[in-house]
Amino acid sequence: MSAGGGTKAIIAALVANAGIAVAKFVGFLITGSSSMLAESVHSVADTSNQGLLLLGQKTAQRKATRLHPFGYGRDRYFWSFVVALMLFTLGSVFALYEGIHKLQHPEDLSSPLVAVGILVVAIGLETYSFLTAIKESKLIKGNATWWEFIRNSRTPELPVVLLEDAGALIGLVLALLGVGLSTVTGNPVFDALGTVAIGLLLGVIAIILIIEMKSLLIGEGASDADLDVICGELATGKVQKVIHIKTQYIGPDELLVAAKIALEPRLPLDEVAQAINDAETRVRAKVPHARLIYLEPDLDRSTVTHS
């Protein structure tokens, strides 16, 4: 996926969440619903998160410097990690606090129909954002399941938006149930329970994202499929075998490949150089994001290891 990949989904989510946040806050001021307040803060956090994802895409495009010779591609991982932390602190923790507080001190809702109307509109807007994220993700998901895509994607923004939107939709349904049951039964405890459920949901999503973004920040290597292709393209022509290889993503669109390769014995120096250049060309043709390739010629003294 290109550096700007997923931008449409991020912008759609930003616009939707900004509008939803305003509507929810108005609804909270009218109704006093704790689940509405929790959802309001959740939408504010999501709006900020989309802004941070766009910031990460922008700063990641900076040119490499002597201090950062491999560039700033990991900025996208960093800001996605910050987004996960914000979802946990501003979303989950606040919702849990508000829900527990309202369980201890229940308050009757006023104008619950206003809250229901706002939540229904919010579900419509959030559905649009979610469908946009799904459409963008399908362009790069391939045959992987959605869970595999979230777990294995080296591009952080779309998995973040997908999980945020899914959490937002489920949270809206929970808020709607809380407000609806409180209205029907006259018991405000259901609204508070809806708020607690929203907090737990956001906590689970945030923890998943924190784990995944932390893994990307530390550095992940090529997928098994890409690694097999790389090794296959290297071990062709005058390259007898790959003795040892290491890979790492230094940004969503930039894979570093470092390998020790065994060449045919007694090759002249110019043929050694040509064999290395040809190997790099073959790899880049099949795995375009393998932009940085460092190959070391050697004698065949070991077996192939992947790491």
Automatic annotation (TrEMBL):
The chain crosses the membrane at residues 6-30, 77-97, 109-131, 160-180, 192-211. SUPFAM superfamilies: Cation efflux protein transmembrane domain-like. Keywords: Membrane, Transmembrane, Transmembrane helix, Transport. InterPro entries: Cation_efflux, Cation_efflux_TM, Cation_efflux_TMD_sf, SLC30A9. One of its GO terms (molecular function) is monoatomic cation transmembrane transporter activity. It comes from the Bacteria. NCBIfam families: CDF. Residues 10-217 form the Cation efflux protein transmembrane domain. Pfam families: Cation_efflux (PF01545). This is Cation diffusion facilitator family transporter. Coiled coil: none annotated. GO terms for cellular component: membrane. GO terms for biological process: zinc ion transport. It comes from Lentzea fradiae. It is a multi-pass membrane protein.
